[in-house]
């Protein structure tokens, strides 16, 4: 018997067809043919051991052990065969007894600790002192500046009536060996005639020696000694006249020539600075 059912072309995908062969007396059935279909097995994709995949394998819930008939079980081995290195050669002899309490060995251990801390403190203090000393020393004047901070002058090398110029702290230094006539003249000057009134006795520690900075108080030129209308110094830049005491007498300069700090160490030695 043969039957065929086809409802419509649109339903061809769900069409059901069936055949059925039934033997009758006139025609035998065809022998059955067996077809061996070889199954193709596709290997599963290889598991990638990444951080995520390994993490996903970790247990989410707390680990519990359960035993049941037919349940999974496992055997774990304790690695008691691992040999622990012997560090006793590195241990102090009084600490090798593992049954002794720590208080009995405290003095020896603390002594060593105090020794280390004390040594470190001494070393640190010495290093700090060196660093601070170097830092402060770096801010002080250099050796060449210190060498020029003071100048010593032998006075018997300067004849009377002469003015000698030295270089001191980068500036001209005038040392004048005044004559008796100059001393007499300068000591009798009327203070009311001076622009910057100052007694000659206040400017010269010893009357015969006058110590001045050779810098004009107008704009800083170097005056010329034994020149000018008053026999002292003359500044050619703008015409300032100073007397033999270094006091301004005429011209644009507003002040007397500056007198540096100086000391007469003995009869023939002068130290300026
Ligand atoms: S700088 Fe000396 S008078 Fe001007």
From TrEMBL:
Database matches in Gene3D superfamilies: Cytochrome Bc1 Complex, Chain I, Rieske [2Fe-2S] iron-sulphur domain, Ubiquinol cytochrome reductase, transmembrane domain
Occurrences of domain Rieske (ranges): 176-271
Cofactor names: [2Fe-2S] cluster
Cited Pfam families: Rieske, Ubiq-Cytc-red_N, UCR_TM
Alphabetical keyword list: 2Fe-2S, Disulfide bond, Electron transport, Iron, Iron-sulfur, Membrane, Metal-binding, Mitochondrion, Respiratory chain, Transmembrane, Transmembrane helix, Transport
The record's free-text note on cofactor binding: Binds 1 [2Fe-2S] cluster per subunit.
EC supergroup of this enzyme: translocase
Gene Ontology MF terms in the entry: 2 iron, 2 sulfur cluster binding; metal ion binding; oxidoreductase activity; quinol-cytochrome-c reductase activity
Domain of life: Eukaryota
Reaction catalyzed: a quinol + 2 Fe(III)-[cytochrome c](out) = a quinone + 2 Fe(II)-[cytochrome c](out) + 2 H(+)(out)
Primary subcellular site in the record, as a coarse category: membrane
Known EC number: 7.1.1.8
An annotated GO BP: mitochondrial electron transport, ubiquinol to cytochrome c
Entry's family note: Belongs to the Rieske iron-sulfur protein family.
General remark: The Rieske protein is a high potential 2Fe-2S protein.
Matching NCBIfam families: Rieske_proteo
Protein's name in the database: Cytochrome b-c1 complex subunit Rieske, mitochondrial
Organism: Daphnia pulex (Water flea)
